[in-house]
């Protein structure tokens, strides 16, 4: 038997088809050798060997027909193998796609987190800028007040006593000398009065000594 229906890799789904192919191979004088030899080979090798059999004039036509039926069964087997390989490839690609999607979701989450952090930093910078602007405004206001205070102190009027002395001070030189002399004389009179009122004056001290001396 060329084709084994129990082989899941044969590619056939109906047993009647397998039985018919096996009967055609055997009825034409063929054997399972062609099928068993190339059942694991790629299709190009199967076709090349079938071409060599068909092109050989010394090979009987019945054998050629048997090899053709075996090649047909091998073609179905190759198609099933390719379908299985493609299914595995699709599953692998699907797994890679799922991994990429997971990575994309992770990157999207990370990007969202970075955007939120950026917005937070921008908000903090804006708040710091506003605070700095307010501090600079307060500094300028205090500086302006300080300048105004200094200017007001420079132009402030004198006290009443100082203003009276300034107004009473003579303008000409003679008047200033007379004022200085009057001030000096007044100072001397004050000192004389102080000496007369002092208990250490000579007359007062002599009288005190005579009063205290014992009589003879």
TrEMBL record:
Coiled coil: 83-152
Keywords (A to Z) from UniProt: Coiled coil
Region (Disordered), start-end ranges: 155-216
Domain of life: Eukaryota
MF-aspect GO terms: mRNA binding
Domain Testis-expressed protein 13 A-D N-terminal: 5-149
Similarity comment: family membership: Belongs to the TEX13 family.
Designated name of the protein: Testis-expressed protein 13 A-D N-terminal domain-containing protein
């Amino acid at each position: 038997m060329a084709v084994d229906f129990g082989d899941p890799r044969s590619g056939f789904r109906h047993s009647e088809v397998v039985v018919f192919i096996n009967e055609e191979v055997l009825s034409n004088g063929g054997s399972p050798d062609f099928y068993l030899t190339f059942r694991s080979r790629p299709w190009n090798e199967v076709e090349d060997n079938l071409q060599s059999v068909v092109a050989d004039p010394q090979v009987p036509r019945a054998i050629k027909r048997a090899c053709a039926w075996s090649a047909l069964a091998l073609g179905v087997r190759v198609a099933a193998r390719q379908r299985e390989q493609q299914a595995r490839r699709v599953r692998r690609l699907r797994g890679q796609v799922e991994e990429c999607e997971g990575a994309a979701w992770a990157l999207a989450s990370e990007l969202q987190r970075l955007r939120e952090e950026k917005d937070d930093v921008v908000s903090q910078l804006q708040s710091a800028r506003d605070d700095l602007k307010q501090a600079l405004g307060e500094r300028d206001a205090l500086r302006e007040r300080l300048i105004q205070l200094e200017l007001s102190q420079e132009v402030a009027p004198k006290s009443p006593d100082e203003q009276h002395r300034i107004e009473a001070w003579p303008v000409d030189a003679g008047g200033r000398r007379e004022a200085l002399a009057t001030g000096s004389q007044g100072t001397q009179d004050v000192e004389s009065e102080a000496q007369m009122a002092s208990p250490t004056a000579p007359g007062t001290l002599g009288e005190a000594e005579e009063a205290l001396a014992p009589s003879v």
